[in-house]
Amino acid sequence: MQRGDHGLSLPDGVRIGLLGGSFDPPHAGHVHLSREALKRFGLARVIWLVSPGNPLKAEGPAPLSERLAAARALTGHPRIEVSDIEARLGTRYTADTIAALQALYPRVAFTWLMGADNLVQFHRWDRWREIAHRVPMGILARPGSRMAALNAKASRCLAEARLPAHAARALPSAEAPAWCFLNMPMSPLSSTALRTARAGG
Ligand SMILES: Nc1ncnc2c1ncn2[C@@H]1O[C@H](COP(=O)(O)OP(=O)(O)OP(=O)(O)O)[C@@H](O)[C@H]1O
Ligand SMILES: O=C(O)c1ccc[n+]([C@@H]2O[C@H](COP(=O)([O-])O)[C@@H](O)[C@H]2O)c1
Fold first, then answer.
1. Does residue 78 carry a pLDDT above 90?
2. Would the keyword Cytoplasm be found if you checked this record's keyword annotation (predicted)?
3. Domain encompassing residue 52
4. Mean pLDDT throughout 120-138?
5. Ligand 1 within 6 A of CB of 191
6. How many angstroms is it from 22 CA to the middle of ligand 2?
7. pLDDT tens across 20-62, in order?
């Protein structure tokens, strides 16, 4: 067990899914993705990494404290945890966050989780190949993004590292690069739609 002043207590050997996001606002689609990932990848816990700000998004999100509070109020699941560790570590780029977590918790098996829409533009992330070589990646279907994700630049570059869906439970202990795409009953929810609805659009 290793503890720090980062608010995370992770036992050695545990299989942890990391779901990075703006969560602006969080919604049931995030919970749905997390529950599927827990079950189908055989994870002990999913940690929501609430981002101080997506480096690719020009517009700043709502204040971090608001998004954290909303995420904590929403999850209601004993194995979904909400973390502000990126703010505590001072990291914004995923490659830096993962490197820092692996340095802090060298015996924890981290799996990076994302919806299919994020795989479509994953090759635009800073040091995306490094991320893929650091952690296995679990990708979950999202309406409208399935084919685009499977044809994306990163998917093509990492084609040999793809595990079939029936091997999903082996993903968290697979040596990176390794990724697995899972179909699931899809949730049409998105933060963009919720923000638009709130603004009365
Ligand atoms: N309905 C959903 N189904 C599957 N994955 C989802 C869904 N909603 C969000 N995700 C995934 O959760 C992660 C965090 O998402 P994020 O906080 O950006 O929410 P979002 O709804 O995608 O927001 P926005 O509309 O502002 O892009 C991303 O990997 C995203 O792909
Ligand atoms: O590191 C990067 O270059 C990078 C670029 C775009 C997005 N991300 C991460 O991807 C996650 C999803 O972001 P978002 O805003 O789509 O919810 C979140 O953890 C971001 O920090 C990371």
1. yes
2. no
3. 15-199
4. 97
5. yes
6. 8
7. 999 999 999 999 999 999 999 999 999 999 999 888 888 889 9
